[in-house]
Amino acid sequence: IRCVGAGHSFNAQCATDGTLLALDSFSGLISHDAQQYTATVKAGTRLQQLGQLLEQVGQDMVNIPDINKQTLAGAIATGTHGSGYALPALHGRVQSFRLVTAQGQELNCSASENAEIYHAALVGLGSFGVVTEYTLENWPLAHTERQVTMLPVEQLFAEWPDLYQKNRNAEFFYIPFTGLAMKVLHNQTDKAVTPRGEDKDMESLMDLKKLRDYVSWSPSLRRRIAQMVADNHGTEYAVDYGWKLLASERSVRFHEMEYHLPLDAQIAALKEVIDVIEKQRSDVFFPIEARVIKGDERAWLSPFYQQDTGSIAVHAYYEDDYQFLYSLIEPIFKRYGGRPHWGKMHSLA
After folding, report:
1. Cα 75–chain centre separation
2. What is the pLDDT of residue 152?
C-alpha cells in the first residue's frame, strides 16, 4: 500500500504494484486552539484549502511553498518548503501527527511520545505508514506585504545576504540569458489590504519562450530585448493574508530539479549553474529559483536537518529535453554538498 497526495512530485516515489491510497476525501479542520495558535488538520487537506480554513479561526501558516496545490501530508512527507532565513520547512512546525502502521496500529507521534518514529517519519516519504492528521503550530492571522522588483542579477548577488536576513520571506528568480533577477519579498504589515493583481506567470513565460525561439541564435540580442521589456516592468505590490500571497499560480507545465546547499555555498553554486546553462543550453528559458530555509532538528530525513540552507531550483519546459538537469546541473549541486528535494528530480533513488 502506498499513499498518493496531489501528484505534484516529479518522481515515482508513490509507484506500486499493489494498492494506491488517496486521501482526497479525508480533508478539513478537526480542531484548533485559539490561545496557542495550533490546529489539527486531516492529512488530505490541500494547502490552498488549509489557508482558508485557518483564516476562519484567526490563524495563518508560518510559511507556504511557491505552489499550494499539494496535500498537507504529501508536502510534509517530502520536505516541502517556502523561503525564510528564520523559517523552517513545513514539517518544522508540526507539533504532532497520527500514524497508522502496516499492522493497523494507530500511533500518536511527537517529540515526547513515540519520539523516534516522530523524528523518522515526519519527512518519511510515506514509508512508515499512513499519516491521518497533523497538529500544526501556526501564527496569529495578520496582513503580509508583497513586493516584487526586477534588478541586475549581480546587484542582487551583492545584496542577497542582507535581503534574506532583513526580510521575513526573501527569494529571487534568475531569468536565463538576461542578466536580470526578480526579487520577491514578503513582510508582516499593519497596512490595509491591496489585492494582488492578475497573475501573469503564463503570459510572462510564453514571452520568454518566444524570445528563446526567435533570437536564441544571438545571446546578446536576446539579452538586450529582455532588458528593454524589463524596463517597463514596475514593482508588483500587494497586501493581504500570507496564504493568499506567498504561493502563485503555475499553469505552465515543467520538469524541475531542486537541491539544498549549505547557505554560504548557494551563490557560488548558482553562478556555476548559470554559466553552464548560458554556455551550453540556449533552449532554457524558465527562471531559476533561489530560496533560503532555516535548519531543523525535528526530521532526520529532512534535507534541512541541522543545516541552514540555500536552495536552487532549475526548470525545463515540459516539451523540452530535461536530461541536462542530470548531466550538467546535478553534478554541480553534488559538488557543493547539495541535498535533493525528495519530491523533485534527482538521481539518488
Report:
1. 9
2. 95
What single-letter amino acid sits at 300? W
pLDDT, the chain, mean: 94
CA 185 to chain CA mean position, Å: 15
Of residues 341, 294, 59, 295, the one with CA closest to residue 168: 294
Distance CA(245)–CA(240), nearest Å, equals 7
- CATH code at 143-340: 3.40.462.10
- 67 or 144, higher pLDDT: 144
The Cα–Cα gap between 94 and 110 comes to: 9
Terminal CA-CA length for the chain:
19
Q: Which three cell numbers stand for residue 330?
A: 546535478
Q: Is 55 exposed, middle or buried (0-12, 13-18, 19+ CB in 10 A)?
A: middle
Query: CA quadruple 23, 250, 260, 15: dihedral positive or negative?
Result: positive
Cα separation, 256 vs 9, in Å, equals 9
Q: Hey, where are the domains in the chain?
A: 2-140, 143-340
Rounded CA separation 343/339 (Å): 12
Between the alpha carbon of residue 114 and those of residues 123, 142, 305, the distances in Å are 15, 34, 19
pLDDT of 233: 65
Judged by DSSP in three states, 74 sits in helix
Count of H-run helices and E-run strands, the chain: 10, 17
Q: What are phi and psi of 245, to 5 degrees?
A: -115, -35
Total residues belonging to the chain: 349
Q: Which CATH architecture has domain 2-140?
A: 2-Layer Sandwich (3.30)
For 272, counting Cβ atoms within 10 Å of its Cβ (0-12 exposed, 13-18 middle, 19+ buried), the class is middle
Q: CA-to-CA distance for 61 and 84, rounded, in angstroms?
A: 13
- Residue 81, pLDDT > 90, answer yes
CA distance 324 to 15: 24
CA-CA distances (angstroms) from residue 271 to 69, 84, 242, 329? Answer: 31, 21, 31, 11
